[in-house]
Amino acid sequence: MNHSLLQVRRLTKHFPVDGGWLRPPRHVHAVDDISFSLKAGESFALVGESGCGKTTTARLLAKLEKPDAGSMLFDEQEVAELSGPALKQYNRDVQMIFQDPFESLNPRRTVRAILRQPLLNHDAAEKGEIDETVVGLLNQVGMEPGEIFMDRYPHQLSGGQRQRIGIARALTLKPRLVIADEPVSSLDISIRAQILNLLKALQAQHDLSYLFITHDLGVVRSVCDRVGVMYLGEIVELAAVESLFTTPLHPYTQALLSATPVADPVKARKRRRIILEGEVPSALDPPTGCRFHTRCPYSEKRCVEEKPALRELHPGHTVACHFAGDVGVDAAAD
Ligand SMILES: Nc1ncnc2c1ncn2[C@@H]1O[C@H](COP(=O)(O)OP(=O)(O)OP(=O)(O)O)[C@@H](O)[C@H]1O
Ligand SMILES: [Mg+2]
Questions:
Q1: Residue 234, ligand 1, Cβ within 6 A
Q2: Which is it for the CA torsion 283, 289, 292, 295, positive or negative?
Q3: pLDDT digits (tens, 9 = 90+) for 84-134
Q4: Which residues contact 178 (CB under 8 A, 6 or more apart)?
Q5: pLDDT in tens, 243-290
């Protein structure tokens, strides 16, 4: 549990966008200088509003995009430098589960074909044992008996079943790290808990590590051990999940938490809701200093001028805010 499976250091990705005739190209600051690590067996969450760079981070890790700067160490090896068998192994070790299983599953292929493909591509099962392996995977993701689902197409499955196929596909190659990008946000509320429970059970069974990408703090609390909060391409707070929920230090985290529903009506009444003012600024031209200053209720001149560094305020709990620790947390505690 102590070994760092993944270490992301100062990772940066800017997308050039055409500035138009005679205008210089501009850049979307999708991911800006982010660092975090993930231990073997751990679930680490990245949370934040739409457009803050969560999916871009996932795509960089899955090698679907190339970083502009920074490093990603997997098992202490630089991912960008992997080639040959080591790269092939990385492509097996790191798998993704996507938000919308309907889009990520080929509609013209049966469940059997979808799950056979990675096994064939990677020579991961004996030819004669592939169907048996596929049935085993279906049973593991709760689609029992697996045989009855083998010849169905994605449109013949429910949303929850489709996501189970997405999970089974991620497991075909016995990965060590699964990156789950909003794995339950397209599902019915009643199905979400089932899929989250399945992911937790599979984690224990297969000794998996998860990078969980979500905007739903309820999901973070039920599944994850540690969390990084992103705002406009940057990580503004990193903490153990319990520490983040009891002592959120960044005003942005406090605002996010204050917007989550609380079951206890007494606590709900006591809680002060922080309403964030204004829109999320454009990632093409992020604000100076602290990027959150345009919406922060505690913003001062210093926040406009000086970018706050991440500093460790409590053991294992870091935050990038000049005034963290001095600004109220009661709004979020429950
Ligand atoms: N290929 C691309 N070209 C240009 N801009 C991009 C590209 N991919 C992402 N972006 C931009 O980068 C920023 C981060 O996008 P990203 O998809 O990582 O956000 P996200 O946190 O996953 O959002 P959501 O919660 O809506 O999925 C956004 O401003 C987005 O428009
Ligand atoms: Mg996304």
A1: no
A2: negative
A3: 999 999 999 999 998 887 788 999 999 999 999 999 988 888 888 899 999
A4: 94, 95, 96, 97, 170, 171, 208, 209, 210, 211
A5: 999 999 999 999 999 877 666 666 666 666 677 777 789 999 999 999
CA of 56 to the centre of ligand 2 (A): 7
Question: pLDDT at residue 329 above 70?
Answer: no
Phi, psi of 38 (to 5 degrees): -135, 125
Degrees, nearest 5: CA angle 161-162-165: 90
Q: Which residue has the tokens 């996507």?
A: 98
- Identify the pLDDT of residue 317: 97
Give CA–CA dist 172/104, Å, rounded: 16
Of 161, 130, 127, 122, whose CA–CA distance to 144 is shortest? 161
Say how many Å lie between the first and final Cα of the chain, rounded: 29
Rounded CA separation 136/154 (Å): 19
**Pocket mutation for ligand 1, best pick of 26, 49, 54, 252 (most atoms within 8 Å of C-beta):** 54
52 in contact with ligand 1, CB cutoff 6 A: yes
Of all protein residues, the one whose alpha carbon is nearest to atom 19 of ligand 1 is 51
CA 255–ligand 2 middle distance (angstroms): 20
Q: Which residues surround ligand 2, an ion (CB under 5 A)?
A: 55
Question: Which bound ligand lies closest to the C-alpha atom of 286?
Answer: 1
Is 99's C-beta closer than 6 angstroms to any atom of ligand 1?
Answer: no
Residue 76 neighbours by CB distance under 10 Å: 10
Beta bridge partners of 7: 37, 73
